[in-house]
Amino acid sequence: MEHSEIQKSKHPCAICAKRKVKCDRLIPCTNCVKRGFEKECLERSVDGKESQRTDRNSAVLRFWQSYEYWVTDIGLFKSQDVDPANTFVDLKEEVDECEHWCEFLTRETSFQLLDHCVERLGCLYFGCLSDISDLYLLLEEYWQRRNERNVVFSVDDYYSNALLWSLFALTVYYMPLELLSSVFPKKPPSHIFKYADFDSDFWTEKAQLQLSQCFTHCAVIQLQEANLLANPDVRLLQVYVILSAMGYPHREVSTSNALLLVCFNVAKLCHVDDFRPLITDSTAMRLTKITCEKIWYSLCSCDYLQSGPRKPTVFHTEISSLLQHAAYLEDLPNTDVYQSEDSFEALYWKIISLDRDLNQYLIKGTKPPLKTLDAIQRQTDIFTRKITSSEDSPALASDFARFLASFLLNAISWKLHKMYFIYFEIASGLAKSVHYTKNLVALVVKNIKNRRDTLFNKHPVVIQSFARIAVFYAFYEMVSGSAEIRDLNLDIKEMLQNLSDELEPHLSGLFYLLSRFRLLKTLWENMESETLGNILEHPVMTILQNDINAFSQQMIERPSMIRGSARLIMKRRVPQDQGAVENGNAVFDSIVAEFESQYAIDYLIRRKTEDGEF
Questions:
Q1: Where are the domains of the chain?
Q2: DSSP reduced 3-state for 461
Q3: Which of 316, 443, 501, 569 could make an S-S bridge to 304, C-beta 3.0–4.6 Å?
Q4: pLDDT reported for residue 609
Q5: pTM to 2 decimals?
């Protein structure tokens, strides 16, 4: 029998293996041809290849779950490289800088900022305050204090100042550039606005971000001047929730983690977490408990979104999973599970908690039960119906609130169907994940086209969600070569390029990861992965595993108790695949070392430069 091209397998065919005879590994093999089993040999060879390919793809995709958690989530957003030996602190200089900003801000400008904040950004902080009109009274009192000479501020004054300055920072962060230019026609003086691009007469998003960070720093300094550790006050919680709405926790990882733990202590001390209504409650007590409930849900949302190796102490777990309540409601057919939420903060937390239910399997590295994924699917359907059908819902009273709820639901649905695809090989899982990705892109693009709503895209959940999505599809395109995913990646890249520079430095870090995967794709294609006995021994997979190790070793770091010595890292022995060693592991090692020297993953955790980028 003549063949135009001789095909040879690396393994004996299934028929010869069963007969326990020597196979020449041709496709079909000589033994099967002689015995008339040519057709069966060909079919089993194809089936074996498909099965082997499926197993290899499954192993690669499950490996991805660890990469997504350690690199995309922890490395990009929750890691900060701080060396105390090279960190210098001048508290007097920081206080003086805060005072300079207080002198820079005029009375008229402060009221303009507060007006814009109340009109456009209410969903980010209204729930933390019992009466919005109090803000204007606080601002009037602030200027009375500022106009008095030789006045000594009390702890109460500093807390009120910090609350106002956190709102100023929030407003500057989300304000359109055109409006910012009219509010601040002149840029701040160079001695306090150190990192601005002074050559430009116009405000840029880069300068806007820096101004917002300076205002944020001013708010934090005034919290310190209130001696927050010795003088607990509920306004500390309010300030923290406001600062979290513009990504402060992911820019100042260590400081914000410590501050959040103080917030938890204050919340317990002030009984913020105890908001159960009682018959004996007075009207004032009922209103106070409603505000406490909103603050507590907001704090738990912040706590979950910040949780990671550098913040092992969490308190959001005090609220049980929504799935437990969902199971209870299924036993009560007369209960309306589609009833409207009492507040945006409660709705926001419930949606976030579904992400927590999924994320626990990424952290543990375990396979989720199918019934859990199905329960989360039911809950996302319920919330989607609530958002789309309740036009007059008090929880979704603004366009910003509706955008955040819709965006989070689509992001959680994306993660859900990605897990269906990875763990249960449900083919529709990939297609549905692509569908929800396109929904997310459409939401962002809609805001870009409607210039009035562009500010919605600056919210931290946008860049956090798209970081996971963009890096996953860059990885999947590398291992699958899918043309559909390649086109999707181009759409995602174009959308990311139109996001605000105020999402720096994480936006730059995301682009670095994506460009790195494009280079890894070339390396993947140049080395035939089919020739490897264990796909996870491929140089590309080794590089990705090293990326994971770079961040996961933070969990096993221990401080040295000996003066002058470096931090201690416990060594872990990693067993090598003997077959990989025999097949030229030294060559693989050189490829890995060369790539990592040129495109180091620790780029993500280097200190920020003076211009605010990586």
A1: 87-257
A2: helix
A3: 316
A4: 39
A5: 0.84
